[in-house]
Design a protein that fits this description.
The complex is a heterodimer of chains A (425) and B (529).
Chain A (H helix, E strand, L loop, with lengths): L2 H14 L1 H9 L6 E5 L2 E4 L4 E4 L2 H4 L8 H11 L12 H13 L6 E5 L2 H16 L3 E5 L16 H4 L11 E4 L4 H8 L4 E7 L14 H12 L2 E5 L13 H4 L6 E4 L11 E5 L6 H4 L12 H14 L2 H24 L4 E7 L2 E6 L5 H10 L2 E2 L1 E3 L2 E7 L7 H23 L10
Parallel strand pairs in A: 3-13, 5-6, 5-7, 7-8, 8-9
Antiparallel strand pairs in A: 1-2, 2-3, 4-10, 9-10, 11-12, 12-15, 14-15
Chain B lengths: L2 H7 L5 H22 L4 H17 L1 H12 L4 H10 L2 H6 L9 E2 L6 E6 L2 E6 L4 H14 L3 E6 L4 H17 L7 E3 L5 H9 L5 E4 L3 H9 L4 E3 L5 E5 L5 H13 L9 E7 H13 L2 E3 L2 H11 E2 L2 E2 L8 H8 L9 E5 L17 E7 L2 H14 L3 E7 L3 H10 L2 E6 L3 H5 L32 E6 L54 H23 L1
Parallel strand pairs in B: 3-4, 3-6, 4-5, 6-7, 8-9, 8-15, 9-14, 10-13, 13-14, 15-16
Antiparallel strand pairs in B: 1-2, 2-17, 11-12
Helix pairs in contact in B: 2-9, 3-7, 3-8, 4-5, 4-8, 5-7, 7-8, 11-12, 13-14, 15-16
Classes of the chains: A alpha/beta (425), B alpha/beta (529).
């Protein structure tokens, strides 16, 4: 490690976040991201990493996508964040574009600055529309860290700040268990069910066939709204514009964040049906957000929607998903006693390892081999594997070559034997 | 959406957007090309056949439409060209094998075909549909992906034709995006494609500036120069037959093939008789005034008047200010000079033929050579003669890479009805500042990896059995877990660990390979020690 980096890490501990800084050094990931371009990150010491973390799909179109830079620069010649009280050109344009490309029935867009804020907006809208307070989510759910959103998730994030739900307004049921979901909704007091279409921080366990549509039916039967958290599954990552459409569900509210501005100027969106967003007609001043839907972000988001919907992109996603899967299947057959599962929908992928914290050594070995992917906080057996939707064949091949080597080494770390390939079968 | 916002977000005219547009199409093509290389020969052939059938079925439709769109050419002739560039074209290459390994009988080397990858193919306005067919089918036969960039004048029909072939190819199993077409073209956009590192080879047919730009792009390019074919009729020729062939050729699709005859060179002894035969075949011999009128009309300061491109003889005569019978098939303009100072000795993509009468065989050869030094180097020439020595003397004198004998040059040099490879990209080789001197075809879109053993290890022969390549075919579809009918149970099962080829378990097979490698290493170390 360079002197400069050592010095920097000290500063990071002093001024920014000592524990987090230390955590990564202990985990063997001494990454300080400097330059970034396409699907690659460059450490401040110059090392290149292929990014398959992408901050949960934020960099879906690549880091610093040149078209997004161009449009942001053009936008900056005319706009800034804007004034959130007034009708605004860029906000309205994006809202209209979102209504056109989101599932049928959604109309209004309410803006936030980040995903958690959009989740707050979804919950508040649902509560207003139904006049109920209860919010149902899944065990190990993750929808953000702000006041209401943090209560939908695992207590790992709320307890530290004494912010866990004590009033029984936030109910969690096990994933893929319809009976539990039905029990939660049956009393008829739930405002909404909030579901990540494929729960990311939980390691992308896949919804069973019929699970999500049945939840939607239960919602309808029991007067609750369905909030689709599409922060990580939207924007073509499943091969369709929105993951939820692939499961045949038309949500009442949809939450969009991260990739919507390609990491260039953050905004988030909560898109609602007219019923779910009824407060917008009654009391439009009920929620305010200065940075919510900043107009420069809206300009970038319009470009993101346009790029993402190009016909070529659709076949790129298919190629990337098929090719990586076929390569990962081969790697799995080499290390089948350690690399035990692949969860996949499009480029949303979770790699499962037969060890309670198996994804951590894999993450470290990947890092050594020039790949950045992160374990799932709420299920460290699973590595989140999130390639971008514009990856080239040669970069994908490069990625697989590195993944094969890293998994072999990590298997050795866990099983012993210095990284030798395990017996198949 | 507000118009101002729309304008702000629409950056499509910026260099960045152009570059990204090119990159996206090329990246998709790159994927298709890589997947295509997994295909075996039978599948590849059936894809090319399917595309050729679709091409053939629409040959007339596209001929009619492209004549309407460009305003020039002859429908019937375009139908012929389009048809020839579809089924017969694929048939011509049926016995070639661009997919399997082969043994070179001369050297005993084992050779593996390696497709270029992504072919960026420029299509001219003169033979647009035939060129689209030719380039797409050449790419499909060799498992390459191709991006067609049509000439703006023939854009609409070319886009439609390319899509027809693409759909047929994909329906027959070709990788999605193996055949793409630029839906909007502009010079800066085309330059982005040519410059991109994601383009593996440029197949440039078109005007000289475009071809030179292709070569200047820093990417491998197969570009061809313009034609300007001399046709020599000597005293031994069957004059009637020669005249008929020349008029047929020169009027074929109103002379838009770059292989068309530009200047007829003959000898004093047969000139009058030849003129009579030309007239008999449908030519009009211009007088001095008419020749001058044509000279002025056809050539401007900037070069050939494109208004005349592919127009018929009567129309051109009318534009130049004189009348000929509407049945006139070509206009013949007698000239006394070849080269600088005589515009009519330049390439004329219209049914106007120069006529130069030489005083001797030696002068005829010198003038033919001079014509090609002036323009059209490396391209084509024709000779009508029964004297084999005269033919070879002529062929050796002119700096071209194809000389057709007693045949219409337009069709013959492009490979139709002669032994030459059928093509719409005529390689002009070193004479014509090009990388290929042959009629370009699928064979130019493949390189071969040569596997060489020590010479004393014994020679391989085709009969000895050539090992097969493992063609794995299309990529298996990745599952979409949880989507009815698309989950991991529904798609093809992953390779089962433990079962390898030949009944050996994967592990046992690996163990065997490891043993072999270890033994080889031991030997190496021993030798080294």
């Amino acid at each position: 490690m360079s002197e400069a980096k050592l010095e920097f890490l000290e500063a990071s501990k002093t001024w920014w976040n000592p524990n987090k800084t230390e955590f990564w050094q202990d985990a063997g990931v001494d990454l300080v991201i400097d330059r970034r371009e396409g699907y690659c990150l460059y450490d401040m010491d110059g090392r290149r990493l292929i990014d398959v973390h992408l901050n949960g799909g934020t960099y879906n179109l690549g880091h610093r996508n040149p078209e997004l830079i161009e449009v942001l620069n053009a936008g900056a010649q005319r706009f800034d964040m804007g004034n959130h009280h007034f009708p605004a050109l860029a906000r309205t344009a994006l809202a209209e574009a979102l209504a056109e490309c989101t599932p049928p029935g959604l109309q209004y867009t309410i803006y936030g600055a980040g995903g958690a804020e959009a989740v707050e907006l979804a919950i508040k809208s649902a509560r207003h529309a139904t006049k109920r307070r209860k919010i149902v989510s899944i065990v190990k759910a993750y929808h953000g860290h702000s006041g209401l959103s943090v209560k939908t998730g695992d207590e790992r994030f709320s307890r530290t700040f004494l912010s866990e739900d004590l009033l029984g307004e936030f109910v969690q049921v096990p994933f893929n268990r319809l009976d539990a979901m039905e029990d939660a909704l049956k009393p008829g007091d739930a405002a909404a069910v909030i579901m990540e279409t494929i729960p990311a921080t939980y390691g992308f366990p896949m919804p069973q066939e019929g699970y999500l549509p049945e939840i939607k039916r239960l919602c309808e039967r029991h007067g609750a709204l369905y909030i689709a958290d599409e922060v990580q599954t939207g924007l073509m990552r499943t091969g369709e514009m929105w993951g939820i459409s692939r499961y045949g569900v038309e949500p009442d509210i949809m939450v969009i964040g991260k990739g919507i501005t390609g990491g260039m100027y953050p905004i988030s969106c909560c898109v609602t049906s007219p019923q779910a967003g009824a407060w917008l007609k009654e009391d439009g001043f009920a929620h305010m957000s200065t940075a919510g839907g900043a107009e420069l972000g809206c300009i970038v988001a319009l470009k993101v929607l346009e790029i993402t919907q190009r016909p070529e992109v659709r076949s790129m996603v298919r190629y990337i998903s098929d090719y990586l899967r076929s390569g990962l299947d081969e790697i799995q057959s080499l290390y089948s006693d350690f690399f035990v599962g692949i969860r996949q929908h499009g480029v949303v992928m979770g790699l499962e390892f037969d060890h309670p914290e198996g994804a951590k050594p894999v993450m470290r070995r990947l890092y050594e081999n020039g790949v950045w992917a992160i374990f799932s906080t709420l299920d460290p057996r699973v590595l989140q594997f999130k390639p971008g939707i514009l990856m080239t064949q040669s970069l994908c091949e490069d990625l697989l070559r590195r993944v094969e080597a890293a998994i072999g080494l990590a298997r050795g770390d866990v099983r012993g034997g210095g990284g030798r390939r395990g017996r198949a079968g | 959406m507000d118009a101002g916002i729309r304008r702000l977000v629409d950056i499509s005219e910026t260099p960045v957007a152009m570059r990204m547009r090119a990159e996206l199409i090329l990246e998709r093509a790159g994927w298709a090309a890589q997947v295509f290389q997994r295909y075996d020969r039978a599948t590849t052939q059936s894809i090319a056949d399917a595309a050729a059938r679709a091409a053939h079925a629409r040959a007339r439709d596209y001929a009619e439409r492209v004549v309407r769109e460009t305003g020039f050419g002859v429908v019937e002739h375009k139908v012929q060209k389009n048809e020839l560039s579809s089924l017969p074209f694929v048939d011509y290459y049926r016995d070639w094998n661009f997919v399997d390994p082969r043994v070179d009988p001369e050297t005993g080397l084992l050779e593996i075909p390696r497709p270029a990858g992504v072919v960026f193919a420029l299509v001219p306005s003169t033979n647009p549909i035939a060129t689209v067919y030719f380039k797409v089918l050449s790419a499909l036969l060799t498992r390459n992906a191709v991006v067609i960039s049509p000439h703006p004048a023939a854009h609409e029909t070319c886009v439609d034709a390319t899509r027809t072939l693409a759909d047929a190819a994909v329906a027959a199993g070709a990788p999605e995006g193996a055949v793409q077409v630029l839906e909007e073209v502009s010079l800066p956009l085309v330059n982005e494609f040519m410059r991109s590192e994601k383009t593996d080879v440029i197949l440039a047919t078109g005007g000289t500036p475009m071809v030179r730009a292709a070569y200047a792009s820093s990417n491998p390019a197969i570009g061809v120069g313009p034609g300007n074919a001399p046709v020599y009729v000597d005293a031994s020729a069957d004059l009637r037959a020669a005249a008929a062939r020349i008029v047929d050729s020169k009027s074929f699709d109103n002379s838009v093939l770059c292989t068309n005859e530009s200047v007829l060179i003959t000898l004093e002894s047969v000139a009058k008789a030849l003129e009579r035969e030309l007239v008999r075949a449908g030519a009009h011999i211009c007088d001095e005034g008419q020749t001058e009128a044509l000279r002025r009309y056809l050539f401007h300061e900037r070069g050939f008047n494109v208004e005349a491109l592919g127009r018929d003889a009567a129309w051109i005569a009318a534009q130049a200010g004189f009348k000929v019978s509407p049945k006139t098939r070509i206009l013949v303009t007698p000239i006394r000079l070849i080269g600088v100072g005589e515009d009519l000795s330049r390439e004329k993509l219209c049914p106007v033929l120069g006529l130069f009468v030489a005083r001797s065989h030696a002068q005829a050869l010198m003038q033919a050579r001079g014509l090609l030094r002036y323009a059209g180097a490396g391209h084509s020439a024709a000779v009508h003669s029964t004297d084999e020595q005269a033919i070879i003397d002529f062929a050796a004198a002119v700096e071209v890479y194809r000389v057709v004998v007693n045949a219409p040059c337009s069709q013959g040099a492009a490979g139709f009805g002669t032994g030459l490879a059928p093509t719409f990209t005529v390689g002009t080789g070193f004479f014509g500042r090009s990388s290929v001197g042959e009629n370009v075809g699928p064979q130019h879109l493949v390189n071969w990896t040569r596997i060489a053993w020590p010479e004393d290890a014994g020679r391989r022969t085709e009969g000895g059995g050539v090992p097969r390549l493992r063609h794995r075919g299309p990529l298996p579809r990745a599952p979409s877990d949880g989507v009815p009918g698309e989950g991991r149970e529904a798609v093809a099962p992953a390779p089962r660990p433990g079962s390898g080829p030949g009944g050996l378990s994967r592990e046992a097979l690996r163990e065997q390979i490891r043993e072999i490698v270890a033994a080889e290493l031991r030997d190496l170390l021993k030798d080294g020690g």
